[in-house]
């Protein structure tokens, strides 16, 4: 299984250690095409590959992916863009959101959840992530 993980890079890297944990856990279920997103050394400036090359590469990876997992607590235009494409590509998608952040999740993300192909799951912290991912990947899609 190929997994596309998306989380904030230029929108802020305050949760980079959490992303690193999520990528490591996702590796138990398949190949994470975007493991660099979980690299805590990656700064908010991202990679130096050039914006066009990053866009094209990431959309190619998204097309290849069997599933998408997004950490959506830190608002990110890029993650929203990726989720819109994933939705249109009919990719099975899990969005993880921490209400304790004090933020409100965009209605466009929460409102897209249909309980089958697009799931939005609130969680308290890192300790919840493993069980949530296990349920998502071991559940049989409808």
Put the structure in a nutshell.
It is built from five helices and five strands. It is an alpha/beta fold. Helix 3 (77-88) links the parallel strand 3 (67-71) and strand 4 (92-97).
Description:
It contains five helices and five strands, in the order E-H-E-H-E-H-E-H-E-H. The model has no long low-confidence stretch (mean pLDDT 92). The chain has 142 residues and is α/β, with parallel strands linked by helices. The protein has a five-stranded parallel sheet with strand order 2-1-3-4-5, with helices on both faces. The protein is globular.
Low-pLDDT residue spans: none
Summarize the main sheet.
Answer: 5 strands, parallel
| Shape, per Cα inertia axes | globular
Structural class: alpha/beta
What is the helix/strand order? EHEHEHEHEH
Beta fraction of the residues? 15-25%
- Record field, number of beta strands: 5
Distance between the termini: 17 Å
Mean pLDDT: 92
Strand order of the largest sheet: 2-1-3-4-5
Number of helical stretches of at least 4 residues: 5
Backbone CA Rg? 14 Å
Share of helix among residues? 25-40%
SSE topology sketch:
Layout: E1 2-6, H1 16-26, E2 31-32, H2 51-64, E3 67-71, H3 77-88, E4 92-97, H4 107-110, E5 118-122, H5 126-138
Helix pairs in contact: 1-5
Label this structure with key terms.
5-stranded parallel beta sheet, 142 residues, single chain, alpha/beta
């Amino acid at each position: 299984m190929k997994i596309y993980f998306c989380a904030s890079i230029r929108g802020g890297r305050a949760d980079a250690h959490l992303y690193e944990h999520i990528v490591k856990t996702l590796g138990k279920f398949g190949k994470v095409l975007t493991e660099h997103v979980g690299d805590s050394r990656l700064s908010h400036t991202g990679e130096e590959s050039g914006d066009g090359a990053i866009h094209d590469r990431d959309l190619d990876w998204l097309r290849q992916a069997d599933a998408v997992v997004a950490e959506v607590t830190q608002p990110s235009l890029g993650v929203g863009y990726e989720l819109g494409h994933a939705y249109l590509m009919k990719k099975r998608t899990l969005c993880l959101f921490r209400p304790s952040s004090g933020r409100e999740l965009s209605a466009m993300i929460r409102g897209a959840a249909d309980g089958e192909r697009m799931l939005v799951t609130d969680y308290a912290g890192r300790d919840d992530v493993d069980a949530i991912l296990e349920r998502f990947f071991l559940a049989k899609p409808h």
